[in-house]
Amino acid sequence: MGDQIQFIVEKLNQEPFRKSYNLITFDSLESVQLLQLLNDVLGEIDPKHVVDIREELPEQTAKRMLSLLGILKYKPPGGASDLSAFRQGLVTGSKPVIHPLLHWLLQRTNELKKRAYLARFLVKLEVPAEFLQDDTVADINKQYEELMEAFKNLHKECEQLKTSGLSTAEIRRDISAMEEEKDQLIKRVERLKKRVETVQNHPRMLEIARQLRLEKEREESLAQQKQEQKNQLFHAEQRLQRAQLQLKEMHHAVVDSKPESLMKKLEEEINFNSYLVTEKLPRELESKKNSAYFLQKVVAEPAMSQSDLDALEIKINEVNAQMNQLIEKRMMKYEPIDSKFSMYRQQAAIISRKKEAKAEELQAAKEEMSSAERQMLQKTSQAQEMEGADVLKGDEFKHYVNKLRSKNTFYKKKRLEIAEITAEYGVLQRTEELLKQRHEAIQQQLQAIEDKKGISGYSYTQEELERVSAVKSEMDEMKGRTLGNMSDMVKNLNAMVAEKKASLAPVIKELRQLRQKCQELTQECDEKKIQYDSCAAGLESNRSALEQEVKGLLEECAQEESNYRYINCMKRNLEVQLQRAKEEMKAYVSSDPQERRKAIREQYTRMILEQENLGKKLREKQKVVRESHGPNMKQIKMWQDFEQLMECKRECFLKQQNQTAIGQVIQEGGKDRLVL
Fold this sequence. Notes:
Blueprint: H1 2-13, H2 23-27, H3 31-45, H4 58-72, H5 83-92, H6 95-107, H7 109-122, H8 135-163, H9 168-197, H10 202-256, H11 259-300, H12 306-333, H13 340-386, H14 395-453, H15 458-588, H16 593-597, H17 600-675
């Protein structure tokens, strides 16, 4: 404990606290001083806590400190069992609670500063679920979470850059390289200047180049202005379209703004929401839970090979086939026409399917409408940020100028009046000061006279009595006026109520009759609607049964028709084959040789003989080729060798001719030198 206090004192005597404590003075601090010291340490960690605890209640101080300690993740020494004692000690400034807390804070001040800084941006605000149903709140919350993630990434990058800084040697090398590059650029500029100075009229050419650059910049600015004007025109057209759309919506709202229609819409919306809450959403939730359970079960099982998957698929097909057979048997055993319950079940199933389909369509339409509204709001906000003021044209601009001139003259006139009033105010203010001074002097003289006469305070008491009597008379007069006004108002209200009752009596009587009639009509309408729904459901079930029967008969008819066509085609093929067989037998047993030659058997016999003769000739030719193959190959090789030999001789002959021609040229050159 002594080491702990000594560490606290040393840290408090250093920067940034500079308290100049010793062990005795620190130990003699009172509870309020200890709490203020703890608050100073917390204020160093988080600047929001730099406050004077004497200006706030102890409960507020404890709550503020506990919230910051929760963010800093401080755990009291006693654990979770002594949390109430820790809170009580923090409120009262107990030393056994404050000393360990100061020791913990001063040990890791830099780390806690960083944590408190991050907590300002990363402690998430909890939004209730009912508020998140609003699209605007949900979008803002989503944007808030995205910004929080972006801050996390940026902070990580910043920390990485701080830890992975460049060394001084690398920075020096970069600086020297940039200086060398700068010297090279200066030399290059000087060389270009010297080269340009040799050109005629170089100042004029430089001026022309400068003008060309300026014109290009002007062209870019004009193109940018043109694009901005196009954008302004586009935004103006969009504003016009929005205004027309708003006008149209307002017309529709005025037409449809009746209490009955509003009540009807509200009832429809309530019915739809109750259906979603009681039927649709619980069923979807149950299906999601089942699918999640099955998926977890699949994940928990070991990995399966393709053969296992094929076996499972075969098993599933078999089970489905068995289910279909059982359903068919059941349908054959219990005919739906004779069973009233089956008809009602079928009607209920049809109605529930229709209801689910319409609910899904309505939900999809609402989602689409909400997304369209969000897009419209987003586009509207973007347009409001980007659009400028409207440009006045023609008569509107002239009217605006005239109005501005009239306002200018009015402004000048009022300005002169203000100057006169200001001057008069200065005079009155000076007069007031002089009168106050005279009044004070007279009051002092009067006070001196009262002191001499022994009646000091008489004038002040008289003024107070006069003022109180004046106030009392004003209050009495005001009360009398108020009572008179209230009585008149009550009379008027009673008269108005009686008049309204008299005027509304026949209307109320008629309204009662109309309400009774409306109830009767509503009851009759509900009965007719129930009858209509039951009749429609019965007709729908009969129609679906007839449609299934007709569909089965049509399929059976199509199957029988296809069988008939197939059998007819097979019959024709067989007839053609039988006719060909008869003609073949007739030609084969005929005594006429010409007829027998036409038979297919004879034709195939002749073709077989021709092919056999051709095969014999080819085999003989193959035998001759095999016998003469060896000598022929030798002869080919001899001819190739002979060709190579003749080629070699030709090359030698050409080389000899070239050498002879070169010798003759050399001899002729020598003779020419001798002649010279």
